[in-house]
Specification:
Polyamine Oxidase, Chain A, domain 2; binds flavin-adenine dinucleotide; 2 domains; FAD/NAD(P)-binding domain; 5-stranded parallel beta sheet; globular; alpha/beta; about 425 residues
Length: about 425
């Protein structure tokens, strides 16, 4: 029987461990943080609801996620409420750029050879004449895909936009932590050991043998290893491979990994509901062109909580000072809602800022597809000498990129390949 070491106890590592343990493999999970779950991080105290510092939504009917929800007897809630948009100082009732977006969709349909989105736009749309379309595409791509317009694949965006269904978005009652706790229970029952607070710094390997060294000098030995740490960690080369893997290093660099800063603000009252001028009744989402542009509520749960989202290159370049970030977020809200900052502060009950860019065990939020991603991913997914395997959200090959589903699927696939 093989002894398998799995580096990283996020969704991917946990799912890989479960798959292997079910086939009676001996497994040790090695995790840098003092908790499991990785980029799933439900805050169970401090707010009147469990709040998500990381993954929050189930984006559509995603098979593995939904089957875990069912197995763990968890419940999901379909999001409800209205969407509001404020752009260039005006509330928008319809998309003013609908015609331009239709032209963009048409041009994308004819795309035969992949290119980055910026080059695609420049080729088809005169920047001066279509400057609003450029801003709109940039806002969407940076906000949702957290991607750099100069690197993101136009073909991948086209496929994502064809597949996406804004109507089917869910919250998990009690948060994503429920799935993590469920997997943890399964692993405990199967006798899988989980080592917390053990950041790995080196993996020495040869065919059929691995030695994993942590920063505290602990050494673990196994026959095979699955590395599930985030792409950001691999790109920064925080883990040293001996002998080195230069082809892998090149491949990691070719893939895209974006940043997110999430702002969780709980207030005394949902003051935006009674906003003078434009009351934002039953607000689900609020989109804007402010520095922290996107905000949402917890509807159908009627709690006075707003979540702010800053994604893409701006999340990487912005200050990392928490006090300054707090002020920037307040200022954005104040401008969007026409509500003075001191008044917003008076309403504040509690807040939390989750800066995934500064997180030492993520170095970012999730992956996006560059023109070079498919080739790079294929290379990384080839096991090295039947001994070194890679998995994780960034290495998933389907259409639910950057999701928990991607992580679960990839972890399961790596374990099945090993078996
Ligand atoms: C802000 C944010 C919002 C998101 N929103 C959504 C959403 O709404 N819906 C959705 O489906 N997905 C969302 N995602 C994406 C989702 O969270 C991820 O795709 C998924 O959780 C990744 O799982 P993983 O196992 O691949 O990686 P991770 O969860 O990052 O697990 C990898 C583990 O490796 C550990 N690690 C790192 N370095 C080392 C080391 N040196 N030694 C040992 N361990 C190490 C990490 O601590 C981590 O626990 C979001 C992500 C973020 C950050």
């Amino acid at each position: 029987m093989n002894h398998v070491l799995i580096i990283g106890a996020g969704a991917s590592g946990l799912m890989a461990a479960r798959t292997l343990a079910e086939k009676s493999q001996s497994v040790t999970l090695i995790e840098a943080r003092d908790r499991i779950g990785g980029r799933i991080h439900t805050l169970s105290s401090g707010f009147s609801l469990p709040m998500e510092a990381g993954a929050e939504f189930v984006h559509g009917d995603l098979p593995l996620t939904l089957s875990l929800i069912k197995e763990s007897a968890s419940e999901i809630k379909l999001l409800s409420g209205n969407r509001y948009q404020r752009w260039k100082g005006e509330w928008q009732t319809a998309n003013p750029l609908e015609e331009d977006w239709t032209k963009l969709d048409r041009a994308l349909q004819d795309l035969k050879t992949d290119t980055d989105m910026m080059s695609f736009l420049e080729h088809h749309f005169d920047q001066e004449h279509y400057s609003n379309l450029y801003d709109s595409v940039k806002g969407y791509v940076e906000g949702y895909d957290i991607a750099d317009l100069n690197r993101v694949s136009a073909m991948a965006l086209k496929e994502e936009w064809e597949e996406s269904n804004d109507e089917l978005q869910y919250h998990i009652t009690g948060g994503y932590i429920r799935l993590i706790n469920f997997l943890e229970d399964k692993l405990k029952a199967a006798g899988v050991s989980v080592l917390l607070s053990s950041p790995v710094k080196e993996i020495q390997w040869s065919e059929g043998k691995v030695k994993v060294l942590t920063r505290d000098g602990e050494l673990m030995e196994g026959d095979k290893v699955i590395v599930t740490v985030p792409l950001g960690v691999l790109q920064k080369r925080d883990i040293k491979f001996i002998p080195p893997l230069p082809d892998h290093d090149q491949a990691f660099a070719k893939m895209g990994f974006g940043g997110v800063i999430k702002f969780l603000f709980e207030f005394r009252n949902a003051f935006w509901e009674n906003k003078i001028g434009t009351p934002l009744k039953e607000m689900a989402f609020l989109f804007s062109d402010e520095q922290v542009p996107t905000w949402w509520t917890q509807l159908p749960d009627k709690t006075p909580i707003l979540t702010g989202w800053l994604g893409g290159p701006s999340a990487i370049s912005i200050t990392k000072d928490k006090k300054a970030l707090y002020q920037i977020a307040l200022q954005s809200l104040s401008t969007i809602l026409h509500y003075p900052v001191p008044d917003i502060e008076k309403e504040m009950v509690n807040y939390h800022i989750a800066d995934w860019v500064s997180d030492p065990y993520a170095h970012g939020a999730y992956a996006y597809t560059t023109v070079e991603t498919p080739e790079a991913r294929r290379r990384i997914l080839q096991p090295v000498k039947g001994t070194l395997y890679f998995a994780g959200e960034a290495l998933y090959e389907g259409t639910a990129m950057g999701t928990v589903e991607a992580a679960l699927t990839s972890g399961k696939a790596a374990a099945e390949m090993m078996l």
